[in-house]
Amino acid sequence: xxxxTADGLIDAMANNNTxxxxxKPNFANxxxxxxxxxxxxxxxxxxxxxxxxxxxxLDNTSIGCINFADQTSPTTSYLGLLELSTSxxxxxxxxxxxxxxxxxxxGNSTALQTTNVDLTAVVGNNLVNxxxxxxxxxxxxxxxWYTDTGATVSNAQISVTYNDNTTGTLNPVxxxxxxxxxxxxxxxxxxxxxxxxxxxxxxxxVQLTASTGTAGSFGITATRYRTSVYxxxxxxxxxxxxxxxxxxxxxxGSCLFPVVIAAGAAIPFLKVSGKIIHG
Amino acid sequence: xxxxTADQLEKGLESTFSRFYVNKASVTANxxxxxxxxxxxxxxxxxxxxxxxxTTSVPNSTTLGAISPREITVPSTTTKAYLTxxxxxxxxxxxxxxxxxxxxxxxxxxxSGNSTAVQTITSMDLFTFSGTNNFDNRMxxxxxxxxxxxxWYTDTGATAANITVxxxxxxGLTSNITxxxxxxxxxxxxxxxxxxxxxxSGxxxxxxxxVQLTAATGTAGSFGITATRYLCSIRxxxxxxxxxxxxxNIGLPEVYYDSCLFPILLISPGTNGTAGTVALDGKIIYx
Lengths: 279, 287
Known about the structure:
The structure holds two protein chains of two kinds. By secondary structure, chain A is mainly beta. Chain A is built from three helices and 19 strands. In chain A, the strands form four sheets. In chain A, strands 3-12-8-14-6-17 form a six-stranded antiparallel beta barrel. In chain A, strands 1, 5, 15, 16 and 19 form a five-stranded antiparallel β-sheet that branches. In chain A, a hairpin with a 4-residue loop joins strand 9 and strand 10 (about 165-170). Chain B is globular. Chain B has three helices and 15 strands. The chains are: A mainly beta, B mainly beta. At the A-B interface, helix 1, strand 1, strand 5, strand 15 and strand 19 of A face helix 1, strand 12 and helix 3 of B.
């Protein structure tokens, strides 16, 4: 069954749930106002393996994700509680479902780097449900850095396919100035006016206007945002209950992982707890 | 019985509950902003606990220092207990401090900060104590629910040193957790889960086998290993004002009988990071 009553919510919160524990060490090299992925940070959950040039979909068995057990239909899972403490005030934690990834892009080449990260071609890992709206409007696309690229000024030109099967190039985005490992740059906001009303369903290639000077490593990631919590002060645990969180459904197979909007040059610790409730 | 409805929750809140009260002295002398401090050894109510011995043990609700509403000590297959409410007041100069409630699963002490020898720890093993003090239920179904800590009971010395902690993971293999800066004050807790290295990604600690310092700190002091299970928390945004959290904010955690509940203080820098007195009130309801 799905949770449709207050009784069902209370029963699930009290008796049928999975406790989330995230305990991460220092995240160096963050920068104020930018998004950073905890996918490759050690601790608990463990450090995920470095994405390769192979496009792969993720699920709740992938190393690096927040564990929970798939439920047997019609039992459904929801995020019912989320608590955050971090050493940097004004940090926002977002929980995303990591849908698909591809790494191995380099920052010191001006050649066309083909990516072929295509959500329309995937069917496993319950991705049809996890993607959400079939027009791909729930999907967030990112450039994600795994090791630092170089300092030389450069822009990335990103070729995508939209949900009407047309292709186009996103507005250019700066990738010089030494983009640090863990950084995530959102692509949805780069959809140009000419393609207004469309949504990205595939990222086909990336090309830099100049070598940044260092190869580094970065890739393409698609996620679906689930919820967030914000801490106004450092080293205090703040709580968001099911009302604050919006009781988002957690689909079987979801590869949940933390993304932060950083408020400082480092995040010495990040501790998250919560409850995925089932009913 | 299990609480499964709003009516049962309401009944528990109104008529079938126990209150507990915690009133602890300040740990100001040792407090460090932004760090976790155990109130296990702080004086007040509940009483100051004894320093654990070198023998690993499973504390329960009757252990001196535990928050122990009477009913939790009664094993029952039909009665279930849930934590529904917390209020928290802190004094002195500690706005924004947080109290976490943990179930203290395992502990041992007697480790020295003045030795560079391997200090062997026996039976600090999640699979040794099945059946003891309701350990299986308290530990929970998932190893990731267990949080491992270094916990200080008396100050170690000031000389710089790191500690290497040898662990066994749930793949049955051992690995070291390293690079923990060692010089600490009494009460301090350092999480080990966050230090799981990349080589053990995807695995969880099941045993702590030994610790070894890179240098003597100059003072033996006393520290140990503790395993806990997190239940809930509450933050006090202001000084000397009660903060409240109801069941929606603490997640209605089940409190298993024999649980050894105790508070851990996360000290916010707030103003100057010192810690004041702690007054905590809570309600555990029964179905």
